Amino acid sequence: MFSEIRMRRLRHSENLRRLVRETYLSVDHLLYPVFVVPGKGVREEIPSMPGIYRLSVDQVIREVQEVAEFKIPGILLFGQPQMKDAKGSEAYSDQGVVQQAVRAIKSQLLHVLVATDVCLCAYTTHGHCGLVDKNQVLNDPTLEVLTKIALSHAYAGADLISPSDMMDGRVSAIRSTLDEHGFSESPIMAYSAKFASSFYGPFRDAQGSLPQFGDRRSYQLDPANGREALREIDLDISEGADIVMIKPALPYLDVIARAKDMTDLPIAAYQVSGEYAMLKAAAQKQWLDEEKTMMESLQSIRRAGANIIITYFAKEAAKILSR
Ligand code: PBG
Fold this sequence. Notes:
This protein is of the alpha/beta class and 323 residues long. 38% of the residues lie in helices and 19% in strands. The strands form 2 sheets. Strands 1, 2, 3, 4, 5, 8, 9, 10, 11 and 12 form a 10-stranded mixed sheet that branches. The termini are far apart. Ligand PBG binds at residues 117, 119, 121, 129, 164, 200, 203-204, 209, 216, 272-273.
């Protein structure tokens, strides 16, 4: 005879299941990534990311209106330059597409929070996230460029500054630059535990940001290391991060859960391009139910402990959550 505890008693009806449910996914938790490119009238679907587009500034406005209608709290903006160069100088240009897009969104008074990705990889000819000398990605000289990018985003009106480069000391460099220029109220969402992941593949197609030599393992985290990820998170907190991020999400749920135990700061998780592409591709083949697997994966990221989920599914999930 087995014990008298019967776990199934609480699973019998949907109402019982509702009463004992531990985790909720709401549209309030979602942030939607948006890719902005130079030009006018550009709306180009990314082949490995069905339903996700490269958009020129005029089209971004349409997209953000839709995001507002879905009541998604915000977007995370990624840009591309007209011309790449070795120093990624268009990344901090007043006329860059991100800066233009932020100003355009803000001038329309759309009630959508605008977070901006601060990095060099889409802007440099070599495709690395920092300045390069003799095939080495330089840490300290990169910090100055990152602070310029962050500041240019803040001047354009960005609500949340989000460095994704993984250079050491960038959170504190950006924090003090923002403070010195009157942006002490601008929060930083740091990509704190960003792993050197192969799940970024479709994003790099979208952004043309594949490294031209080597890979990102000299600055992004080794996928084998959970304890080191916690040190990165701890460091970013001590440097002044307001929100810490773990990326990718699904292969690193353990890191999200451990971070949740370690800190009381809000935790963001980035369900990256490869995670999206996997589910989309399987659904297109009718090997998986797209709606159910999408919601299950988002739910599990919440269960692990993320407050904020950055996901290409944001609009589709919002649609489902509103019915
Ligand atoms: C830029 C950056 C990357 C992603 C977000 N910011 C790519 C990378 O580090 O190569 C990945 C996002 C995704 O895959 O959806 N450093």
